[in-house]
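Hello again, I could really use a second opinion on something today. I've been staring at a protein lately and its backbone has me curious. You're getting the sequence in one-letter code plus the fold written as tokens. I'd be grateful if you could look everything over and explain what you see. No rush at all, and the record is pasted right below:
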Amino acid sequence: MTTSRPLWQGRALAVLGILLCAFSLRSAVASLSPLFDHVAADFPLSSAVVGLIGTAPPVCFAVFGLLTPVFERRLGLERVTVIALIAIAAGLVLRGFSVDAVTLLLSTALIFAGVGMGNILLPPLVKKYFPDRLGLMMTLYTTAMALSTFIPPLVAVPVADAAGWRVSLAMWGVFALAGSIPWVLMLLRGRTEGVPVPAVRDDRSARDAARADAEESEPVTLVTGPIAVAPANSRIFARLVRLPLAWSIAIVFGTSSTMAYVSFAWLPAILVDRTGVSASVAGLLLSLFAFMGLPASLVVPLLVVRFQATRPLFIIAVACGIVGLAGLILVPSAALVGLWVALFGVVGVLFPLALVLISVRARTPETAVALSSFVQSAGYIGAAAFPILLGVVHDQTDDWLVPLLIIGAVLVISVPFGLIAGRRQTIEAEWERRHGRW
């Protein structure tokens, strides 16, 4: 087990860097969909383009999730984080200068390339700098991501009405640029070492290691001296592909991503068409959907790290999501739409749940980098098809019933994988149990 010290002691820049980076990862996604009507007033946006913009995040996240370990091996964790944040900031500003659907899509792709790298980097950054405060730091950074999910839809339309949609889209680049500053300062000062931890006995058998992993509230860090995040390598990836636990975490993450990006792309339109609310009210309800992830971000990491509550949290999230969808299908009333959206928004629990599992299901930062890349790339590949699929299905049926049933089916199918992801063991322990020494 690791020793503890105050969160800010000797690592204040790392705290700021992680939180500002986390805030920048979702604001780019959540700030665009409420403004489609404003953008369409300047140049046409077809349903196909909207579907592609909805699909762009998971596609870019999957591609750059696979490339990020290669970049990290060549440049280091902190340098790649700076590159990712600068790409996000540049893309956000360029998106504000879009002149047609093509430039809007290209600038959005640049943003999500940076976000895709940041998604992979955050869990190992937390594990590197805060192995003694894993639950607390995961809570803080997932909370920052939740804030950046529900605040942009809340303010996007008022800012666009007052200053124009270009300002409303570009202003979020300030946070990404600010997030790069702590990492640049750390690199200039040469302070990118991790937190020293006591040596751990390495003479345990594989069976003892697996038993310890199942019994301890946090995974043992099998390193001595300062933590250094080693690059993910092909050997670890090849092993992850053969492990049900890794695939189950990836499917939990993919389910979370599907719910998020389908909602960011189509939830306002679904609410307008099925319940008769106005476009402005639909934007507020999208913010409500995103807001439901905030309480989850505050409590989920601590509940998982301290109490191993993965399975109950997963079941609650899926059950509430299904009830919310059933309400939109069976009782699409404007009077009850807030209740249905709030219940559906509880699926936001899955996002911090999947992120914390990436950290606690790995013994070492090296495995955490590989698992983060594998889980997020596989999850985003699975999620990428759904925004455009639902748009096509809606165009063919001229109704949102079948798309809502598809979303519900994704939740139901994820249940057995969520139960597997709740097993109290690390990736290394599962490999040792199945195949011998890691």
Remarks:
- The first helix runs from residue 12 to 30.
- DSSP finds 20 helices and no strands in the chain.
